[in-house]
């Protein structure tokens, strides 16, 4: 059982004042008062909709004996230690790293950032390392693996708070993992959250940068800069208990590749068109893609058994990262690529015996749409329908861009709820529809806020040879409305809708 005195926990953390016994032993850290237990430190952090200081009393009633706070507290018992800092969220990262005995010092850590393809690339890297005899844990939007078992991500955060990150890295170390592969979102890399601020990264991987999360970052330039913090964090001289190459990997086809290279203090390798590692002579089939893997003039036959050109890009990123961290020639990984499996909720075909294709995918950004939809258009004999929405209280500017991308490549659009949260559902749908140039309401453009109803409507209109894409939810286990999250399973909803239409599998 981990425990630490407050004096040790705060040895490297600046604080403005404290009241009480700093020699007190802490046995856990919580930022949600419902998770507080006897002997815990409770961090009173500001959230999007609430203020953690409101829950200090509840945390104390549950046994918390120390409080990390920013604003003055009243009515706190004298036997509870209070430590005031400028921002509890920023302070939580070094505190969590100290409490879990700085786990990233004892394991090789690869960070993966980008607008699209992060989870798939994380999963591919971990699989490749395993195929080659290594032991890799990982943290991603979809799932976690700290030991032998892959478990579903229970959080609605791709990069959870620092306590979870540091705790899972410690589990990986204790369970004998050699390498940790961490999905590093722009939110997690931002100094405003500092979730990843005390993770010692050995490698940084970039998939791409397109329009997303401007509601948080304020501008594309800031969004890109926050992502580049991953590359800035890889230090050539970081002191760790494990040694390995330190490097970066970027997508040579992405316009921001040079920006990330300039942000790096370690060597950066490029994949894709014009990079050190390329996929040439690609032959796409329903069952996957065959290609020539080319590295510095040498070639090897390769195949991935997942359809779609975007998977090839993710596989190239994974090959470069896994090969460099293991100090192997990239082409030596070619024979293993056919064993890669896709992530849950990504290009997930739903087959209940219907004569048209139904596919669940997590694509939810304009950039992802522009990769997926043109490819689906060329492979759909009949009409292509997309069912999608846009998250409430998130990037508003991307909504018409989603509509424009979908409208350009789909015959029919059914715009629906994604996670409306506290926003007006119809207002979100109207903002998407504003970009759907050339589409006529009631003919090939439909606004149906209830997602279950929207899915059934889209499937009821499908004919033999058509394809219906259900986009934006993918693996997620809930849909968030004004009253909070409700259980949701996109694949199960599609199967239920198909059953109601007479397709029983």
SSE arrangement:
Layout: E1 4-5, H1 6-9, E2 17-19, E3 25-26, E4 28-30, E5 40-43, H2 56-61, E6 66-69, E7 81-84, H3 88-99, E8 108-113, H4 118-131, E9 136-139, E10 143-145, E11 150-152, H5 162-174, E12 179-183, H6 186-189, E13 203-206, H7 214-217, H8 220-233, E14 247-251, H9 257-263, E15 268-271, E16 277-285, E17 288-295, E18 298-304, H10 309-326, E19 348-349, E20 357-361, H11 366-378, E21 384-388, H12 398-409, E22 412-415, H13 425-433, E23 445-447, H14 451-461, E24 467-471, E25 478-481, E26 484-487, H15 490-500
Parallel strand pairs: 4-5, 5-6, 6-7, 8-12, 8-13, 9-12, 13-14, 14-15, 20-24, 21-22, 21-24, 22-23
Antiparallel strand pairs: 1-3, 2-7, 9-10, 10-11, 16-17, 17-18, 19-20, 25-26
Helix pairs in contact: 3-5, 4-10, 8-9, 11-12, 12-13, 14-15
